[in-house]
C-alpha cells in the first residue's frame, strides 16, 4: 500500500529539485510535474499520490489549491531558498515509500528538463486533458476534472512490465 501526501509537500519536493539542479521552475511547470507525478503513480499503483483532483485548464492540468499557493510568482521562477537536498531526502525516506520515490525520480528524469511550454504542449496531446476538455474552445476556461480513470487507462499503456 502506498502513502498519500499533500500537494504542498509534493510541490516542495519539485521546488527542492529545482534548487538543487539550478533548473528553474515556474508555477506552470510545477502544475505539469504534479500532474505527471499523480498520473504515473495512478498508472503503477492505481492509487492516488495526492488526494486532490486536477482540472483541465486552458494551459493544461492544474491543481487549483496548489496553483493558488504559488500564484504570486506569476510566470517567474518559484524561489524558496530553504528547500534543498535535505527536503528531498526527508520526503523520500519519511513522507513516501521508496517505490513511490522511484516513480518520482522517473518523472524528474523524463519531464524536469522540459520547459513549461513543452510540458503544456505535451499534456495537450494526451487523452486525459483532451477528454476532460471535451468540446471546449482552446481558450475557454474550465474547471472540468481530469478523471483518474483516464489517467490510469492512458499511462498504463506505456508501462513496460519486467
Structure write-up:
- Strand 1 and strand 2 form a beta hairpin.
- The protein has helices at 7-21, 27-45, 64-70, 85-95, 98-111, 116-124, 127-133, 148-156, and strands at 55-57, 60-62.
- The model has no long low-confidence stretch (mean pLDDT 96).
- It is 56% helix and 4% strand.
- The radius of gyration is 15 Å and the shape is globular.
- Helix 1 packs antiparallel against helix 4 (85-95).
- The longest helix has 19 residues, at 27-45.
- It has a two-stranded antiparallel sheet with strand order 1-2.
- It has one domain.
- The protein is mainly alpha-helical and 162 residues long.
- It contains 8 helices and 2 strands; from the N terminus they run H-H-E-E-H-H-H-H-H-H.
Beta strand %: under 5%
Structural class: mainly alpha
Overall pLDDT metric = 96
Largest sheet: 2 strands, antiparallel
Computed over alpha carbons, the radius of gyration is: 15 Å
Helix content: 55-70%
Q: What is the terminal separation in angstroms?
A: 20 Å
Arrangement of strands in the largest sheet: 1-2
N-to-C series of helices and strands? HHEEHHHHHH
Name the overall outline. globular
Let me know the number of strands.
Answer: 2
**Quaternary structure state of the chains depicted:** single chain
- Count of alpha and pi helical runs: 8
Number of domains: 1
Low-confidence stretches: none
